[in-house]
User: Fold these one by one.
Assistant:
Number 1:
Amino acid sequence: MIKGFKEFILRGNVIDLAVAVVIGAAFSAIVDAIVKGLINPLIALFFSAQDLNHLVWEVPNLQGTTTTFAYGSIIGAVINFLAVAVVIYFAFVMPMNHFNQRRAAKAGVTEEPEALPSEQELLIQIRDLLEKQKSA
């Protein structure tokens, strides 16, 4: 039992996952700082960006009180997600893709290898070759 656990822990996947979680947390702090320090002030330049948590919809319920739906916080979360996604894409993903393409071009790597024939096409080719051998 302990041997199996030791093999599981020492397998590269678990250690890689642990490293990815730690780096992801540090990366999240960088992205949050960019969004809060750069993107949100840029949005505030063009729009009156207020806290959206005050946007609520109160509905009377069966007990005689009201139930509050905080749709403003949902809208704020969606906007924040889109801002984070834009920062990640334009600041990290797009430059990294461009870098990888340039590196692959320098190494002479082609984009896609030629597709292999399907099983049906191979069987047709074998049949045709066998017919040629019989007639020869």
Number 2:
Amino acid sequence: MQRMTALFSAALLSLGLAATQAQAQQDEAAADNAEQPQATAPAQDFSDDQLQQFADASKEIAVIAQDFTQQLQAVEGEEAQMEVRKEANDVMVKAVQDSGLEVDTFNAIGKAIQQDPELMQRVQEMAKVSASTEDQSS
């Protein structure tokens, strides 16, 4: 669950989206995080390739998160919700891995952009350029 929330939060931050749909998930994650020591994001220099992979994966994760948020709202019962969350986590992890990044690297970049507005701006620009390139190739 913590991994999914970290991925989801990073995706929302990198794309500048509102996190209102995920409020319940984030509240739960905050409770989970309070029980575990926080890993601080090292002040790393990430390569342009890694940042581009992060931007691409973040866009995928934002779509996945939106889909699964709708599914989560449609199911009743804690067990069914946990199953949806597990499935969402698995799909998000696969999206990150398919982008060429390890989940830990993706999460480290996500934490770094939370602490570094310039890095966040750089990733957002990469996401915009990637989106416009995809539009032109269609």
Number 3:
Amino acid sequence: MRLRGVGRRYGLAGPWVLRGVDLDLPARALVRVEGANGTGKSTLLRLLAGIDAPSEGRITGRGPRTAYVPERFSAALPFTAAGYLAHLGRIHGLRPADAAARASGRLTRFGAAAHAGTPLAELSKGTSQKVAVAQALLAEPELLVLDEAWTGLDTEARGELDLAVVERVAAGATVVYVDHDPHRLAGAVDAAYRVEGQALVPAPLAAPDAAPGPRILIEATCAPGTPLPARLPGAPEGTAAPDGTARLTVPAAHSDALLGALLTARPPWHISQVTAAGARAGRPASRDGAP
């Protein structure tokens, strides 16, 4: 996806919110957008998602499957939580049974299964946000745009969204996000930008060790001389040895996505052991050929 000379203002004579924005968004990339309140971050994300059109300039290369999660999800729709997701699934071309199953799975993943039959208008803000996240992931988008999507989620759901983002990138998608937590997905970000004075400028990446929480050591083997797949989820530390062994350390939030990427690589890697980083012994992996 490519932006060239993009600007946005509201009204024919309104002040410019953004102007002269050039940006290339490759596939399989996690991109963070920063900036002070009111600088135009949400405007940029709405342009990327196709919700707003630029007042000048061009946006090209947007894929057919784009999803967007706003900070506040509008619940003024005549559906239950599960009914809304199943309806969107059918719009995306899923068969009714598949749409219902996928809707149920997304609600369960984000801890909202108990509210499947609740009308959207009666959901709490936190549960509404879980539905908003679930609907964005329903069609496995090629471009996922998250505007403070973690706001209102409980700790477990925030962790699941972290993991879901890493999974989408590992699957080849582009994810662009804004979040107030400067350490959100630290170490996994491929590029960062700051909205400043109507322009978009590069921003420094957070150091991988800025990511809080435990780290996981994954030991894997493959045929001698096999290189590791490029751009593994979570930006793991470690390399493959000439004898076909690898020891990779990654934040725990990214460990499942990293395992999936290794197992689905061509050729696939055999996972021999998964342990807490720094532990003396660990558990053998239960998966060795398929995710």
